[in-house]
């Protein structure tokens, strides 16, 4: 029986994916796998049996990825599972910011409930909330991945001019999206022409505080700024200063700071973008399938710390080795196999940064002697045999 620990609610659609070989609970002693949504895991003591952690969503900043890599624990996410949900709320917040919907709502709610001619008051007061349409405006999308690409398509269909910046996007994907997006190689070019700037990049050491005062200064005067990615990607004090100066006309965010919450030129929601039943179901199903395929077959897909390796198994046992990505590692492992007179039916080896993952299939069982030899090699992180 494999033990799976959940740190947050797992949608029923994902729970149904697991078969009777799995025990799913929010309290498990040394689980085989962990499924987590937003609970921080940096202070958790992980047991030696842990094989995988799946983030039911995209961002993994709440997970100690580096620590888990050294332990040989694969960390997965669910890219695209909540992308439509985030896209929809991002567009809604952008429109609310431009049309002053949030301020208008607060004003209407402040009117006396017993006013006999409320309609006339509303008609007289509505002029102060008039705002521009999005049609014909230029939107700059920073990060054109799962969410950003959906934003591009929808904004294009709404009659907007779309400019994109994503230096990590592959050439084929750029070509595919070019029917909706005018890609630029320099972020400054995007900032200079955009009426609206929206950010869709992950939070990491490189992007923390990335949109700062210098970048804001390069934006158009009166720009609308949108952040439905992660709060710390922006220097939020710089954003407030730019709002004070009128450089930023309005700001829409899913991650309001106390200073921003007091402003009527900030449209904010309580980290709600990915929070739809459909997104929960999509991500939970992805998380369950990734967990099962890795535990039962050693296959890796959508891992943030190890290379993706997915292929069908042979009839016998499968040997999975996580190791450092350095010269000679694969040769040493295959030499150990040959030294025991064994034949490898299938072999795949892929690297990701400083780590690599090797899978060897056999038409027999894997003897403990082979496992011990490989496990003792310098640079090997973890060895697992799947019968």
Notes on the protein architecture:
It is a single chain. The chain is built from 14 helices and 16 strands. About 40% of the residues are buried. α3 (about 85-100) crosses α6 (about 145-155). It has helices at about 10-15, 65-70, 85-100, 100-110, 120-125, 145-155, 170-175, 185-195, 215, 235-245, 260, 275-295, 330-340, 370-375, and strands at about 1-5, 20-25, 35, 50-55, 75, 140, 160-165, 180-185, 195-200, 225, 250-255, 265-270, 320-325, 345-350, 355-360, 380-385. The protein is about 35% helix and about 20% strand. The protein is elongated. The chain starts with a strand and ends with a strand. The chain folds into 3 domains: about 1-80 and about 275-305, NAD(P)-binding Rossmann-like Domain (Rossmann fold); about 85-270, Rossmann fold, CATH 3.40.50.720; about 310-385, Alpha-Beta Plaits (2-Layer Sandwich). It is an alpha/beta fold and about 375 residues long. Strands 8-7-6-9-10-11-12 form a 7-stranded parallel beta sheet, with helices on both faces. Strands 2-1-3-4-5 form a 5-stranded parallel beta sheet.
